[in-house]
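Example 3.2
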Amino acid sequence: MYNGFVKVAAVTPEVKVADIEFNKKEIVKKIAEACAHGAEIIVFPELGITSYTCGDLFLQKTLLSRAVEALVYIRDHVRNALVFVGLPFAFRGKVYNVAAALYKGRILALIPKCNIPNYSEFYEKRYFTEGRREPVYINIGEDRVPFGTDILFEGSNGYDGVIVGAEICEDAWVIDTPSSAHAAAGANLIVNLSASDEVVGKDDFRKNLISALSARLVSGYVYSCAGEGESTQDLVFGGGSIIAENGKLLSEAPLFENSITYADIDVQKLSAERRRMNTFESASVESYLHLSFGLSEEELSLETRPGRFPFVPEDEGTRSKRCEQILSIQAMGLKKRLKHTGAKRAVIGLSGGLDSTLAFLVSARAFDSLGLPRKDIIAVTMPGFGTTDRTYNNALELAKSFGATVKEISIRDAVRQHFKDIGHDESVHDVTYENSQARERTQILMDVANGMGGLVIGTGDLSELALGWATYNGDHMSMYGVNGGVPKTLVRHLVRYEADNSGSRVLSRVLEDVLDTPVSPELLPPENGEISQKTEDLVGPYELHDFFLYYVLRYGFEPCKIFKLAELAFEGEHDSETILKWLKTFYRRFFSQQFKRSCLPDGPKVGTVAVSPRGDLRMPSDAEASIWLEQLNAIRL
């Protein structure tokens, strides 16, 4: 287990019906293969030592005794992994369908199946008895072994470590699953030893079932299913093992192909989710027995690299659907505010940049929904010392293409008078020079809105708010901030979505050029007519900051883990030194600029990460970043 990740494996080995000698050697071979791949938790199918389809042979003493002998053989070949194998087990005159947990040459426990199916093609009650919950101790060779369902296995990595609970096949299909009790008792990883036969459509049902279970339990879920080699007298078993994490399908094995499927479960992420959800409450754990096993702390080779854009779906279809949902949320939020206040006009400072373009597009949707004329969207362009022809013309064309009303108000003379009033030298291009322009623009927008009975629509996005990249009481302020929940990397896709679906060549061309324009507040004079002040040169790439923001706020990860994830995600794009530099910048700015977020205007939340002081982020403005930066300063490249 490294940085909260534990590598798991779901194995579907070849089996021969009732050929225990063959099956035990196949299991040992697959354990060695999975361990060589770095797996720390390995799960085999239900009754895998004997095969699931033994029928009345489960009542034969020869089969039962040889299965236990095989378990001891397998036990002796298990070293640095927690392994679950299935077998029939006789106890006090009854036969149980059990999962044996093995670790470092020991049998840690036997977990019996609770729910014994006896319908359709299943007739397990002919052989098996329902398992007991409270553990009792039995002897298997030299091992004193607890036998019962209420047993959890704790990886000895301390805080945010993995806690494993086990169930068997049908246990996952019932109303009151054993895994529900396991999760309430602290388990964050569930393993399921299964033998589920194939009928048309069942594979999709299983995937949905396991994914939904992992989501409801806020856990990882490793589901190993029997495959080729089982008897085909009446049924066919196709494997198709599944690994899921909190509703997300991480990995699945191909059907009708015996194989090992791997995935990395992020236990720290699961713990963060549970901490955040106050409705995820622990139940009484008095009946549970907790057993320890060890985990390696060596760095893992992850099966899947984290995506560079956690706010942006990779699949095009999902991305388009997400864009439409977000635009609708933004527009509905603004619609309600306009309707409630009785405002008939929306006033937007339209710069020709990305954020103001999105706010304008959202305003048009809101006006259409209210049945208000688009001419009452007042697009105010306010040329200043840094305005370029490119952004100025794009702003005009965008407004005209929607039939909005354009007001042009230059800020140059007013700002120069302000410089004169406060004794500032115009040739000194410092923060006063820049912020005076931003505040003058905000004053104009507020006063225009007052004069026209309108609302000032804020344009600042989530990424800027996280970094504090906004002028206090300048572009930081509005009467309703429609973009405050949208990170910069997603803003681009929303504008792209509108460009692709506008139905107008002129509008698409304007939006395409807006997308190609460097992000800039345009507060410093241009150089040769081009933008001289590029935001990402000053505060760092937004793709990095959005990555950091997601893992800081969504899961509360430690800086060293975020750094490692970013190294993996941006390999070949940004080197380690660059990532570390901007991660330090992120933490410094995120903490020092909270005072701006503490007094944000209203605006709609659109995703799971948000910084509203009334909602998701209740953070003191005077918090220190020292312990986070201390961890980053300790990193040696």
